[in-house]
Design brief:
The protein is of the alpha/beta class. The chain has one domain: FMN-linked oxidoreductases (TIM Barrel). Helix content is about 35%, strand content about 15%. The protein has ten helices and eight strands. The chain has an eight-stranded parallel β-barrel, surrounded by five helices. Strand 2, helix 2 and strand 3 form a beta-alpha-beta unit. The longest helix has 15 residues. It is globular. The termini are far apart. The structure holds geranylgeranyl diphosphate, SN-glycerol-1-phosphate and magnesium ion. The site of SN-glycerol-1-phosphate (1GP) has 13 residues, from strand 8 and helix 8. It catalyses: sn-glycerol 1-phosphate + (2E,6E,10E)-geranylgeranyl diphosphate = sn-3-O-(geranylgeranyl)glycerol 1-phosphate + diphosphate. It is found in: Cytoplasm. Pathway: Membrane lipid metabolism; glycerophospholipid metabolism.
Length: about 240
């Protein structure tokens, strides 16, 4: 499968259960300068809502990935570049580590060419995804680094995702995860709402994920986070 995420600095995560900011369209979202769209949310996602977002984004030139929160919402659609499937390393309920995946393989003819996993480490205990998966969010930077190494070296995962959904996380934790990784791509998501927060996390993470902001504030705010993420990747010579 393609590994285009190795080139991404910024992702917009669209929640099919949420509306866009007033007066904005999916075309506006696609034109923010983000490198890819991920479609997914924890609560109240259906295939119909998923399909609506895929159809609205398909004609623009931005990579489009589904991030299914359970096997029942996976949409089979050629307009998708692929599927990024969470595996929650610090889940309390084992179903979110392998059980849901086993059921998915039983019920679907999985398109492995277009499927890869994201090794989630969930760190905001107040997020619905933490509640759902009964994640143990009490993790030191060293423990998060160890999870990241397990993902890469033991399970061969290509993407590690430090997830603080809904709140801005600890940059030291993200730095520890980054230091633990060799080849895998590090995603960071949670509470990125402006240039500075994007810049700070993109100094450590390979890719920052912006979710709620697109729904709450809209595309102008998202564009600033794209700039922050891109600027953090510039070499000193480029920034001069
Ligand atoms: C095997 C298949 C196909 C799916 C299972 C995939 C797994 C393990 C999912 C568990 C974790 C999960 C629900 C991930 C979704 C990622 C996500 C959108 C997290 C952010 O959600 P929140 O921000 O907490 O939720 P809301 O914004 O909906 O409140
Ligand atoms: O909604 P926010 O807080 O931006 O989080 C983004 C993403 O990591 C959620 O899965
Ligand atoms: Mg959310």
């Amino acid at each position: 499968m393609s590994t285009s995420w190795t080139e991404w600095d910024h992702i917009v995560k669209l929640d099919p259960d949420k509306t866009l900011a007033e007066g904005e369209t999916f075309e506006d979202v696609c034109r923010t300068g983000t490198d890819a769209l991920e479609i997914g949310g924890t609560l109240d996602v259906t295939t119909e809502k998923m399909q609506r977002v895929i159809d609205a984004c398909a004609k623009y030139d931005v990579p489009l990935y589904q991030e299914p929160s359970n096997p029942a919402v996976v949409v089979d659609d050629d307009d998708l570049d692929g599927y990024l499937v969470p595996v929650v390393l610090n889940a309390g309920a084992v179903s979110w580590i392998t059980g849901a995946h086993k059921e998915w393989v039983r019920m679907d003819d999985v398109d492995w060419e277009r499927t890869t996993t994201e090794a989630y480490i969930i760190l905001n205990p107040d997020a619905s995804v933490a509640e759902l998966t009964e994640a143990d969010c009490d993790q030191s930077p060293e423990e998060v680094a160890a999870y990241a190494e397990v993902a890469e070296e033991m399970f061969g995962q290509e993407i590690v995702y430090v997830e603080y959904s809904g709140t801005f996380g600890d940059p030291d934790v993200v730095e520890a995860a980054a230091d633990a990784l060799d080849e895998a791509t590090l995603f960071y998501g949670g509470g990125i709402r402006d240039y500075d927060s994007a810049y700070t996390m993109a100094q450590h993470a390979d890719t920052v994920v912006v979710g709620d902001l697109v729904h709450d504030e809209g595309c102008e705010a998202v564009r600033e986070t794209v700039e922050g993420a891109k600027d953090a990747k510039k070499t000193p010579a480029e920034s001069a």
